[in-house]
Amino acid sequence: MAAFELWSFLALIIVAVYAHFVLSTRAPAEGEDYYKAIGQLRRPLFVFLALLLLISFALSVPHFPYPRNQIPDKVVYVTAKQFAFAITEKPIRTDEEFEEATTAEPVKVPINALVEFRVTSRDVNHGFSLYAPDGELLGQTQAMPGYVNRLFMRFDRPGTYLALCLEYCGIGHHRMRGIFEVVAQKGR
Amino acid sequence: MMAEIALPAEVEWAPAERAAFQRLTLAWSGTLFVLFPVLGLLGLFMRLSHANFFPNLDPIWFYAALTLHGVGMVGLWFITGFSGVLYLLSRYVRPSLAVSRLSFALTLLGVLLLVIATLVGRFAAGWYFLYPLPYRSGGAWANWATDVYLIALATLGVAWTLWALDLLRAIAQRYSLSQALCWHYLRGETKPEVPPLILITTVSTIASLTGFVAAVILLAFFAADRLAGVPADPLLMKNLVFYFGHVLVNITMYLGVAMLYDVLPQYVGHPWKTTATTAFAWNAVLFLVLFAYFHHLYMDFAQPKAFQVLGQMASYMISLPAAVVSILGTLAMVYRTKVRWTLASSLLFAGTMGWAVGGVAAVIDSTIAINFRFHNTLWVPAHFHTYFLMGVVLMIMGFLAHLTAQLSGREEPPALRRTILTLLLVGGYGFLLMFYLAGAHHVPRRYAVYPEELAQGILYARLSLPFIALLSIGILLYIWEVGKRWALAFATVGARSP
Fold first, then answer.
1. I want to staple A133 with a disulfide (CB 3.0 to 4.6 A). Which of A34, A75, A159, B168 is the partner?
2. Residue B13, pLDDT score
3. In what helix (H) or strand (E) does residue B371 lie, and over which residues does it extend?
4. Low-confidence ranges of chain B (pLDDT < 70)
């Protein structure tokens, strides 16, 4: 929600500025060259916005979700196929293994452990997302045929986590799901 | 007034030729008056579906509507923007009427094929038809529907490439490439004087041609897969389709901005001249637009990390020229100035606000760490609808109000202008706010039906409906008013054609 608050704050400022400028046209100033005066704001505005963006960029770098040579505590394999996820402890090699895995007991991962999800697809592009038990979207990566995307996550809340598909994959896209459990003790 | 604030028209058209050109421009915009409400209805249908109004509907119809709405709206505003800019440019250069006519005919054919692919063939792979989904639908649509969809895109691609090439040819007859890109301004020279319209259009046309090249390669890979069974690389295909799509949307935005630079001064009485800053800003845009599209692939962790970093940097930086040159320029243009506020000038001005508000949301989402949670949630349609619907669409609607007023000699009563503006702004921003809220609450985009865990998606869709009603009334009132002028203009201009 912080992003929403940031956006709404900035959006309100923009709307207020526009309202101010529209209202200013009700009292036009003859002979005064306000065009140049406002134009002089260009350089300071540029410097301010450029600095703001560069600082935001620098602050965001440590939060990139990409793998950084971490050693995981547990590896979980995620295989997507129209229209289900198989979340398993071993890689899926055949469609039969996939079918079996979609009805098997959910995988358990230990709380606060560094979990590596190795995410791939057996058919088209899918999106593997992680929804916490309270419905919060924690993160995601794409599931692509021919590629393995490695997603590192830690979970600080026990419970059942839901994986929904976040890349449109066909007519059953909205039905696609997978689950796993985060448990207080170490998993199997 | 025109002569005081714009460079003198340098191209003399024979009256019959001029009338034929005006008729063609009116024909392009007439397409808009028909297709905009129809494609808008598809959008309403999707929000009604989200609001659970059709619980037993086959989801294929949702996804087919999603596909047609997406590809149709972007294509529609691109062609309306391009034809409008062509009209404005005809004061300075001489585009070919024959090429524009051919492009119009091919575009109509392309649209017809898109309708057949989606509404008859039920092709529903989304506008972006991510490889290999189009030919692996699991039986939801037939392969022939995909064939028709791809042929439709190829037809539109040919039409628009010819159009763009002809425009560059016309510009090249008067300006060298470096002059059209205003590089002499960067050296401190101001002669020859080049209107911003030429600069922005040259930048946009070159960028759009690079997008069309990407589309050709993409279609060739699809053909190789379909005809010879040679599989393509899904990551490469994703790069190609997002490059093409991103550039097309950005260019449409810039076409609206080109109209703003050219038309708003006529209501303000102050020229918008090219300066070294304008030249630098738009050349920077031409460079940055090539890399910003990487933000569509942030969640493809297999993509080289350098591309991801470049994507965030380019997406951040491309907001600067927009903010400090075009948006600040628009504000400076009106400040304490006697502005003739009409439907045309108000919509052009309001469009820049949507560009700014949507741009802020886009920059937030182009931050990789935030996109990790926002990617493919409703935050994405929230921001692009803001700078599209409340941005470039308003700008182009403003241009059409201007064009039809000029050609028909009619303007709207002030009360009607205020009503239309209020309905569009309140309805539009209210409708979008529900997208933003849903995105911030983790509701995915491109879902026909929300699972029970995401029931908040249904609530936000229901809350958006009253706003969509206001927006729709505003659009219909606009079409009613501008459509009347359009018909009058068409008849007047028609009387002057041979």
1. A159
2. 86
3. helix B368-374
4. 1-9, 496-498
Backbone phi and psi for residue B130, each to the nearest 5 degrees, phi listed first: -60, 120
Residue B6: per-residue pLDDT:
60
pLDDT at A34: 83
Residue A188 pLDDT class (50, 70, 90 cuts): very low
Q: What pLDDT score does A187 carry? A: 44
Residues in chain A: 188
Q: Which residue type sits at B440?
A: A
In this structure, which amino acid lies at residue B88? L
What span, in angstroms and rounded, lies between the C-alpha atoms of A170 and B41? 22
Contact A166 B233 (CB under 8 A): no
User: What DSSP character marks residue B141?
Assistant: S
Interface test mutation site (partner B, options A168, A175, A176, A177, max chain B beta carbons within 10 A) = A168
- Chain B, 372 to 431: residues with Cβ < 8 Å from chain A are 372-377, 379
Residue B10's pLDDT is 74
Nearest CA of chain A to the CA of B171: how many Å? 29
- What tokens were used for A60? 């965001």
CA–CA min distance B301, chain A (Å):
5
Residues 51-70 of A with CB under 8 A from B: 53, 56-57, 60, 63-67
The CA-atom distances, in angstroms, between A68 and each of A63, A130, A152, B302 are: 11, 20, 9, 13
Read out DSSP for B53-81? S-TT--HHHHHHHHHHHHHHHHHHHHHHH
Q: At residue A5, does pLDDT exceed 90?
A: yes
Does ipTM surpass 0.90 in this model? Answer: yes
Residue that the structure tokens 């020859």 belong to: B192
| Neighbour-count burial of A133, counting CB atoms closer than 10 A to its CB (0-12 exposed, 13-18 middle, 19+ buried) | middle
Strand runs labelled E in chain A: 74-81, 84-88, 107-110, 115-121, 126-131, 137-143, 149-153, 159-164, 177-183
Q: Is the CB of residue B22 less than 8 Å from the CB of residue B407?
A: yes
Q: Model pTM greater than 0.90?
A: yes
Q: Which of B273, B276, B278, B220 is nearest to B254 (CA)?
A: B278
Contact list, A145 vs chain B (CB under 8 Å): 132, 234
Q: Which helix (H) or strand (E) holds B200?
A: helix B196-228
User: In this predicted structure, what is the pLDDT of residue A35?
Assistant: 84
Chain A contact present for B460, CB below 8 A: no
Q: Where are the alpha helices (DSSP H) in A61-114?
A: 95-103
Q: Strand order of the sheet with strand A137-143?
A: A107-110, A177-183, A159-164, A126-131, A137-143
Residues A98-152: tens digit of each pLDDT: 999 999 999 999 999 999 999 999 999 999 999 999 999 999 999 999 999 999 9
